[in-house]
Design goal:
It contains 6 helices and no strands. With 117 residues, it is mainly α.
Length: 117
């Protein structure tokens, strides 16, 4: 079963929120020891990257403030170079980059919903 662009955007938004709820406020040192929140946050970030990797270029162009390549690149790194995960980067992403991403996704979701109706 295929997911629509709107469904994928909503998935990315929901899982971005999940990453924050699992690990916000945890330092890299604490995150390294707290395996359940660490794994939950990493999984959520993987889903965000996977969902956004399937968004077509023309729709990506409508949201130039989203760091598409970086988000998808993070997903690829988490999947394919899992032994090199830097928890300082992950903690920084969760602390500083998720909220702006969610704001941009909200705008893009609203645009797609207007187009689809």
């Amino acid at each position: 079963m295929s997911r629509s662009d709107l469904d994928r955007l909503k998935d990315a938004r929901r899982f971005a929120g999940n990453a924050v709820s699992h690990a916000i406020g945890l330092s890299p040192d604490v995150l390294a020891q707290a395996l359940q929140p660490q794994h939950a946050a990493l999984y959520a970030l993987m889903v965000v990257g996977e969902a956004l990797s399937e968004i077509p270029v023309d729709l990506r162009n409508e949201a130039s403030n989203i760091a598409w390549r970086s988000i998808i690149g993070l997903r690829n790194h988490l999947i394919h170079a899992y032994w090199q995960i830097d928890l300082e980067i992950i903690a920084d992403v969760i602390k500083n980059r998720i909220d702006p991403l969610v704001a941009e996704l909200d705008k893009l979701i609203a645009l797609v919903e207007r187009i689809d109706t």
